[in-house]
């Protein structure tokens, strides 16, 4: 969804101790969540990653999300995750914000990886909810987890709720409590519940807490209730007040975006990237390429809405 043609169209009560000041970072804007290209051997293809970054450099984005869900982070080792972030930081202009995914299942591992991501050049970290023991991940447990991470993080923390992947939504009350932490900057919410996003914005209005829409399919609606940005250049139209144009583009995004994010996942994203001049390629196993029928349907979803 972030190929050159698409983008060009869219771009028209705890004693918390903090080692950084989250309020110094303004999250408002566009963050393409980049994919991780692989060689046939399934090693990370840093040459193709660099070529993709050169294409992203042509777009007026606010920054990049690296090693999020679209980066296949569960399939990479901690060392690979850090190395990918380091490689992106070396190519990314210093005025572009790098948000690095550092979430792990244990608090200890998340703290350690967060520190390594900061050393590799991340401006802030995106921390997903632990989910393997999701039946035990209630508000008390999650508040403790994110507090420990934020207490020890050298950079600001962005909470990450992605129930489609984790089977767990970060509870509203936990978000409201965590928003008071001086080193927790905001939330990337990929659930798509606009009422929930509106409530979070309302309940955290006395804090400098920033909400990002986690999908292009509900970006415009999220902007209407107070989100500050998202994953698509449609954000520029909303902020500049070009609502009629933004509405039309939002409607054209729904079918292809739903096909990728709700249906085909990363294999679908990588297939679409190839159509728009980026290196997508194959995923790391156990994810498999799209079938011919899936590819044809996805291409139809894009062509029917005027993207290809």
UniProtKB/TrEMBL annotation:
Catalytic activity field: (4R)-4-hydroxy-2-oxoglutarate = glyoxylate + pyruvate; (4S)-4-hydroxy-2-oxoglutarate = glyoxylate + pyruvate
Active-site residue list: 160 (proton donor/acceptor), 188 (schiff-base intermediate with substrate)
The family this protein is said to belong to: Belongs to the DapA family.
Organism classification: Eukaryota, Metazoa, Chordata, Craniata, Vertebrata
GO annotation, cellular component aspect: mitochondrion
Matches recorded under InterPro entries: Aldolase_TIM, DapA-like, Schiff_base-form_aldolases_AS
Protein name per Swiss-Prot or TrEMBL: 4-hydroxy-2-oxoglutarate aldolase, mitochondrial
EC nos: 4.1.3.16
């Amino acid at each position: 969804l972030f190929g050159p043609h698409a983008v060009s169209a869219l771009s028209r009560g705890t004693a918390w101790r903090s080692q950084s000041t989250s309020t110094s970072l303004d999250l408002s804007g566009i963050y393409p969540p980049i994919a991780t290209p692989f060689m046939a051997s399934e090693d990370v293809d840093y040459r193709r990653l660099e070529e993709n970054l050169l294409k992203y450099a042509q777009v007026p984005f606010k920054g990049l999300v690296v090693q999020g869900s679209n980066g296949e982070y569960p399939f990479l080792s901690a060392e690979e995750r850090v190395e990918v972030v380091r490689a992106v930081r070396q190519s990314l202009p210093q005025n572009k914000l790098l948000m690095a995914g550092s979430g792990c299942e244990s608090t200890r591992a998340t703290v350690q990886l967060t520190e390594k991501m900061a050393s590799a050049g991340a401006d802030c970290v995106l921390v997903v909810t632990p989910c393997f023991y999701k039946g035990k991940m209630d508000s008390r447990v999650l508040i403790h987890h994110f507090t420990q991470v934020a207490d020890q993080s050298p950079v600001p923390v962005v909470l990450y709720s992605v129930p489609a992947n984790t089977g767990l939504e970060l509870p509203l009350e936990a978000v409201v409590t965590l928003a008071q932490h001086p080193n927790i900057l905001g939330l990337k919410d990929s659930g798509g519940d606009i009422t929930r996003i509106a409530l979070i914005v309302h309940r955290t209005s006395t804090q400098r807490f920033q909400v990002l829409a986690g999908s292009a399919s509900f970006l415009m609606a999220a902007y209407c209730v107070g989100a500050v940005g998202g994953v698509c250049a449609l954000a520029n139209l909303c902020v500049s007040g070009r609502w009629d144009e933004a509405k039309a583009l939002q409607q054209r995004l729904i079918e292809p975006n739903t096909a990728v994010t709700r249906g085909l996942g990363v294999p679908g994203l990588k297939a679409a990237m190839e159509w728009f001049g980026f290196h997508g390629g194959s995923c790391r196993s156990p994810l498999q390429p799209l079938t011919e029928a899936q590819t044809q349907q996805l291409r139809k979803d894009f062509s029917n809405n005027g993207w290809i």
